[in-house]
Amino acid sequence: MTAGSIIVAVTYGDLADGNEGSYLACAHVLADLVQHIVTPKKAAMFTTFPFLEKLPSWCFSAHSLIGHSRELSQHLLNEPFNEVKAQVANGTASRSLITDFLSQPHDDADKDIMKPVAFTVYMAGMETSATILQTFLLAMVLYPDVQVRARAEIDQVVRHDKMPCLNDRASLPYLDAILCEVMRWYPPTPLGVAHATANDDIYDGHSIPKGTIVMVNQWALSRDEDIFPDASRFDPSCHLTVDRKLKNPFINHFAFGHGRCICPGRWFVEYSLWTAAASILAVLCIDHAKDSNGNRIEVKPEYTTGSLIRPAPFHCLFESINTAREGHLRAMMNSE
Ligand code: HEM
Fold first, then answer.
1. Which of 98, 103, 239, 321 could lock 177 by a disulfide, CB 3.0 to 4.6 Å apart?
2. Reported pTM
């Protein structure tokens, strides 16, 4: 929800109470449907047997899902946009991507482009950012030593009654290394995003005809034991040099894709994710939850499959460990 709310705020500004939640819920259902419709197995089937594309959609079991996802897409494409337009007309809109667009001269053709642009930003950013935050929490439960080290770094740099802020970032390299490792450990799009070659090409002696589907296997990159020994272990240190500097900037992470279509939201993620992770670690200890008998509930790193993966639901316990910072955080949340 946090990841989605930030992206909605940037894209559409402050929407009416209740509407933001309903759009987010709708977007979540749509993302789930797309996961069912666009699977790596189906992509392989359509690539191997291209004639399947010519068949009407009712030939496939996903037919009703496609219809429903179309309705949801139309809803998300139009409703938040129309709401912001009405806010602009009655002078209640807060600044956003859409208000910036509406404040400039535009015609219907521009509007037809702007709606999907906003929708794409929102859909591309929401689930990926949510996955990364969930993976961060999962890693903190499973690797308490990493959590303790990250909190110690924050407490050494930031006064104990202050929240960490982006100005502190340069002094907190281990936290940056954690975020790089979260992206490496379980990249949200393990097979990247499919592209097709626009022309015939030759790569490393292999001929690649025009129209070939090309995917970067991020999962293989993440499991390259030459670079990441013991790759299934969560180990932020592998992203740091001996003098505690990040080996590669976060925004160059392979999990953001490559080339012309590399994720344009990566700076946004860098700041929003850093702020969320730093705030969580500064205020809360994340631990295994306990069952009704007081026994620790074990957690395993289990993930959904598909083009976008996320951790299977897991239990964890949050305990406030700094009342002064907790007070700041609550005040910030209540002032919104
Ligand atoms: C940790 C979070 C994120 C990850 C791992 C991620 C990853 C990716 C990847 C792998 C691609 C495809 C790149 C390619 O085609 O090779 C992509 C595209 C894209 N991302 Fe992100 N993304 C994240 C967050 C965001 C956010 C927060 C936004 C918006 C605020 C965003 C907006 C986009 C857009 C608009 C595209 C399509 C770009 C294009 O086709 O030209 N992403 N992202």
1. 239
2. 0.89
